[in-house]
Amino acid sequence: MAGVVPERTEQALSRAREAIVRHARLVDDFPSPGIAFKDLTPVLADAEGLSAIVTALTHGCNDVDLVAGIDARGFLLGGAVARELEVGVLAVRKGGKLPPPVHAVDYSLEYGSARLEIPADGLVLTGRRVLLVDDVLATGGTAVAAAELLQRAGASVVGVAVIMEIVGLGGRDTIARGLGAGVPVHSVALD
């Protein structure tokens, strides 16, 4: 893996935060009444915004063997981050999207339950150091479930990187409880 240059990622963090302010779209009452949803789609559709976000997500990443992107926006980001780090990428899929056999984990959401899966054949995860990537960190349950899934398959999750962290929902604390306080969480921006 090529080394990540801290000065370059520091500059990208600044550019990424500017792109979020400039391009993010605020949508009232989505996905339910009273919620103000910050849509990052316009940020990612902007070439400079996407470039800055991808580089910013690599900030502080060292000694990573694989990037795992969480379904679905994490796929977009994960592939680009993996390319930047010169490592492979793995899609952590929602249940029922992969052919068997799969490794799977079921977990609780604030509104029900969900399942995440990765292939059980065709790739060896044992001993691999994985960076987990997603667009938003809210309550942290999905990130912890994805990390648990990767750990069950033999990988070690060495960090979590997201574009936006919704601070008031406690996701960082959930990750610390689920993965240990030593697993760094990197957010490009806070909301």
From TrEMBL:
Phosphoribosyltransferase domain sequence ranges: 54-164
GO biological process assignments: adenine salvage; AMP salvage; purine ribonucleoside salvage
Catalytic activity: AMP + diphosphate = 5-phospho-alpha-D-ribose 1-diphosphate + adenine
Keyword set, alphabetical order: Cytoplasm, Glycosyltransferase, Purine salvage, Transferase
Top EC class, one word: transferase
Listed EC numbers: 2.4.2.7
GO CC, one annotated term: cytoplasm
One family name in Pfam for this protein: Pribosyltran
Record keyword Nucleotide-binding present: no
Transmembrane segments: none
Pathway recorded for this protein: Purine metabolism; AMP biosynthesis via salvage pathway; AMP from adenine: step 1/1
Origin superkingdom: Bacteria
Database matches in NCBIfam families: PRK02304.1-3, PRK02304.1-5
Family: Belongs to the purine/pyrimidine phosphoribosyltransferase family.
Reported function: Catalyzes a salvage reaction resulting in the formation of AMP, that is energically less costly than de novo synthesis.
Subunit-structure text: Homodimer.
Protein name as catalogued: Adenine phosphoribosyltransferase
Organism: Gordonia jinghuaiqii
